[in-house]
UniProtKB/TrEMBL annotation:
<dbReference type="GO" id="GO:0016192">
    <property type="term" value="P:vesicle-mediated transport"/>
</dbReference>
<keyword id="KW-0458">Lysosome</keyword>
<protein>
    <recommendedName>
        <fullName>BLOC-1-related complex subunit 7</fullName>
    </recommendedName>
</protein>
<dbReference type="GO" id="GO:0005765">
    <property type="term" value="C:lysosomal membrane"/>
</dbReference>
<dbReference type="InterPro" id="IPR032143">
    <property type="entry name" value="BORCS7"/>
</dbReference>
<dbReference type="GO" id="GO:0099078">
    <property type="term" value="C:BORC complex"/>
</dbReference>
<dbReference type="GO" id="GO:0090659">
    <property type="term" value="P:walking behavior"/>
</dbReference>
<dbReference type="GO" id="GO:0046898">
    <property type="term" value="P:response to cycloheximide"/>
</dbReference>
<keyword id="KW-0472">Membrane</keyword>
<dbReference type="GO" id="GO:0032418">
    <property type="term" value="P:lysosome localization"/>
</dbReference>
<dbReference type="GO" id="GO:0050905">
    <property type="term" value="P:neuromuscular process"/>
</dbReference>
<comment type="similarity">
    <text>Belongs to the BORCS7 family.</text>
</comment>
<dbReference type="GO" id="GO:0061744">
    <property type="term" value="P:motor behavior"/>
</dbReference>
<dbReference type="GO" id="GO:0061564">
    <property type="term" value="P:axon development"/>
</dbReference>
<dbReference type="Pfam" id="PF16088">
    <property type="entry name" value="BORCS7"/>
</dbReference>
Amino acid sequence: MGRRSLAEVMATGTPDSQARFGQSVKGLLTEKVNTCGTDVIALTKQVLKGSRSSELLGQAARNMVLQEDAILHSEDSLRKMAIITTHLQYQQEAIQKNVEQSSNLQDQLNHLLK
């Protein structure tokens, strides 16, 4: 016995068998619709999670940029401090030389005045 089409079953069946068939089809369709509804809800949750993940990734990227800026600023500050330190060392050396020269001049003056 081959499979019959829906039209054949509907045409040859009794009103009672047609009603049972209709209820069966309705039940299957309802089940499929409910399954699709559940799938849509699950998919929506995944999309929302993905959106949240994307938001978190964006925040992480912004934080990385801020950290990079802070590192570059720190490196710049260190270079400036190194330049200032070198300048202060030169000034200290110049002051030391002036002190030595003053001491020598004072010694020479004291020797001349004796």
